[in-house]
Amino acid sequence: MPGRPQLIGRRTSTHCAPPVPPTFLATVVFWEDLASVFADPRLAEELSRLGIVFDVQSLLSLEQEYIFHGPLPRAGDELHTCLVLREVTQTPTRRGRMARVCFAVEFRDPDGILRAECRYTSGVFAGVTTSTHPTSIGTEA
After folding, report:
1. Which residues lie below 8 Å from residue 136, measured CB to CB, with a gap of 6+?
2. Is residue 136 part of a domain?
3. CATH number at residue 68
4. What is the mean pLDDT of the chain?
5. Which InterPro entries match (predicted)?
6. In a domain, 85, yes or no
7. The model's pTM
8. Is residue 26 part of a domain?
9. CA angle 48, 41, 101 (to 5 degrees)
10. Cα–Cα distance for residue pair 88/128, rounded to 1 Å
11. d(Cα 104, Cα 85) in Å, to the nearest integer?
12. Helix extents (H) in the chain
């Protein structure tokens, strides 16, 4: 799933551009559709193999990790994003079976060199039933 090029900040002077804060890559959620990984036919096939049907109501965010390969990107660097499905495994839980879905957003420079990764792990529960009645929180009867 190739991504679009992204310009990280803009250089405002002739001085050396400052590095971006390590947490800046968390803003990827504003320009990359991370939910599209759950529309990947390979994921549907893996979940089907495990006997699990994807339902957004059975989705749980488990882990998120940032890895930098070399120096931090600097303001003004152009990075291309790519969403990559890494692994789908089954895990038993107290609620029943769960598929662990591991995927990453890779950040590459124009030469294709991997500069950073955001690694995500999500859980998809099997056979979760949801109520058809809305639940109100913070309202008085």
Report:
1. none
2. no
3. 3.10.129.10
4. 82
5. HotDog_dom_sf
6. yes
7. 0.73
8. yes
9. 65
10. 18
11. 7
12. 41-49
Q: What is the DSSP secondary structure assignment for residue 16, as one 8-state letter?
A: P
Q: Which domain holds residue 48?
A: 2-7+21-125
Report whether 102 contacts 42 (CB < 8 A): no
Burial of 25 (0-12, 13-18, 19+ CB in 10 A): buried
Q: Average pLDDT for residues 84-112, to the nearest whole number?
A: 92
User: Is 131 inside any structural domain?
Assistant: no
| The pLDDT of residue 141 | 44
Find residue 78's DSSP bridge partners. 7
Domain count, the chain: 1
**pLDDT value at 21 more than 80:** yes
Reply yes or no on whether the pLDDT at 69 is more than 50: yes
pLDDT band at 137, cuts 50/70/90? very low
